[in-house]
């Protein structure tokens, strides 16, 4: 009997480490004869784009572990409930049966857990001997029922490092201006908050950090910036792309904003928006805005080893869950202790995670809504611990991906 694993949604720096963890644990336990990989998620599997991961040699597997982005390719494919459209379920199950698949592992976020829950429900209804297990990943850290998600720690480390380095760059002159960093985060502020880890001489580099969980006021923002610029002749600002006004509307979303296949608004441009606010208010013309963009999810050169190790851990736990006959679950991370940091895995119902959002706690945001608390920093810091040592080829990191 065999199993299959696929990746879905936005990539992360350590998403392939979960595949590595699963494949390696299967080598150790010999649960399945072969571990297949579905290229481009469930969409690719439906088109029979499938490879055999068990045929990888040791060197390929190790290189794949340290490769950023989705090495198997990804998709944003909305699987309808089988009561609405059973055709895709019938087609998928037929393909899985042809390969003698007894377990299906899906690496992804909220929408991927929705797919996992739907497939498990269908298998149970049809009395199918196929297990469906979700493996978490998302840089957004917005999955409920898990302390954090693989991928977030590395993104947080990159953002904190970029904040530290650009802060130093923005303070070299006697006559400095205002610097703005825009972090990803459509619905939550976990990524922007991680900039608070960047400190010089025990003081945060960022003067202000604005998150979607706190109502954004243009008046308060300009007052904050004007006052600080007058005092220091320099202001460093970190903002989430998902900032919302008092009505709950994204401050940069227009009626013409694009949406993905799951109906999520495609955002961006908050940094430029804030830059224009500052300039139009006459505070200063010396304003720079930097959108970190996709580097937040693929900067393997700045990955957290803790994050990589936990990505491997959840992949290995998924194989063990399938071996125990579990289905319809996601592997969750439990924080055992914070200092020294230690974590373990538990199984949670995928249906309880699907289409839900874990917001940045409001009690971790200061009263003015423009920075985060010490409690938040204590939560974040262990997740960026240690560095990943990468093998090189032609003086650059050595990576492994599959044709897709």
From TrEMBL:
Q: Where in the cell is it found?
A: Cytoplasm
One MF term in the entry's GO annotations = diphosphate-fructose-6-phosphate 1-phosphotransferase activity
On subunit structure and binding partners, the annotation says: Homodimer.
Q: What is the lineage of its organism?
A: Bacteria, Bacillati, Bacillota, Clostridia, Eubacteriales
Q: How is its activity regulated?
A: Non-allosteric.
Domain Phosphofructokinase span(s) in chain numbering: 3-319
- Name of the protein this chain belongs to: Pyrophosphate--fructose 6-phosphate 1-phosphotransferase
Q: Name one GO cellular component term.
A: cytoplasm
* Site residues, Important for catalytic activity: 137
Concerning Pfam families, the annotation shows: PFK (PF00365)
């Amino acid at each position: 009997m065999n199993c299959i694993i696929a990746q879905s949604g936005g990539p992360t720096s350590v998403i392939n480490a979960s595949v590595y963890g699963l494949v390696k644990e299967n080598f150790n336990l010999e649960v399945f004869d072969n571990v297949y990989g579905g290229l481009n998620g469930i969409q690719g599997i439906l088109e029979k784009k499938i490879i055999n991961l068990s045929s990888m040699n040791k060197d390929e597997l190790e290189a794949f572990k340290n490769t950023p982005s989705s090495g198997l390719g990804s998709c944003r494919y909305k699987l309808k409930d089988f009561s609405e459209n059973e055709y895709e379920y019938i087609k998928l199950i037929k393909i899985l049966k042809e390969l003698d698949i007894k377990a299906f592992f899906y690496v992804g976020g909220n929408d991927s857990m929705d797919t996992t829950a739907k497939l498990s429900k269908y298998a149970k209804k049809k009395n199918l001997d196929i297990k469906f297990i979700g493996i978490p990943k998302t840089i957004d850290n917005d999955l409920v029922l898990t302390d954090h998600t693989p991928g977030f720690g590395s993104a947080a480390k990159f953002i904190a490092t970029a904040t530290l380095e650009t802060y130093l760059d923005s303070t070299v002159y006697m006559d400095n201006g205002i610097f703005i960093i825009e972090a990803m985060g459509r619905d939550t502020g976990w990524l922007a908050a991680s900039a608070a880890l960047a400190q010089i001489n025990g003081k945060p580099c960022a003067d202000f950090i604005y998150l979607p969980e706190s109502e954004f006021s243009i008046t308060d923002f300009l007052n904050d910036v004007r006052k600080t610029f007058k005092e220091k002749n320099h202001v460093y600002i970190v903002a989430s792309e998902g900032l919302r006004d008092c009505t709950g509307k994204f401050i940069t979303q227009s009626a013409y904003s694009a949406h993905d296949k799951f109906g999520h608004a495609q955002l961006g441009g908050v940094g430029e928006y804030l830059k224009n606010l500052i300039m139009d208010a006459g505070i200063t013309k010396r304003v720079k805005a930097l959108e970190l963009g996709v580097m937040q999810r693929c900067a393997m050169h700045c990955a957290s080893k803790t994050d990589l190790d936990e990505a491997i851990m959840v992949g290995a736990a998924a194989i063990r869950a399938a071996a125990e006959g579990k289905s319809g679950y996601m592997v969750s991370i439990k924080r055992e202790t914070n200092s020294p940091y230690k974590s373990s895995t538990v199984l949670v119902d995928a249906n309880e995670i699907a289409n839900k959002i874990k917001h940045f706690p409001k009690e971790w945001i200061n009263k003015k809504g423009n920075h985060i608390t010490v409690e938040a920093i204590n939560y974040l810091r262990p997740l960026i611990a240690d560095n990943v040592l990468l093998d090189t080829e032609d003086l650059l990191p050595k990576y492994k991906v599959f044709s897709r």
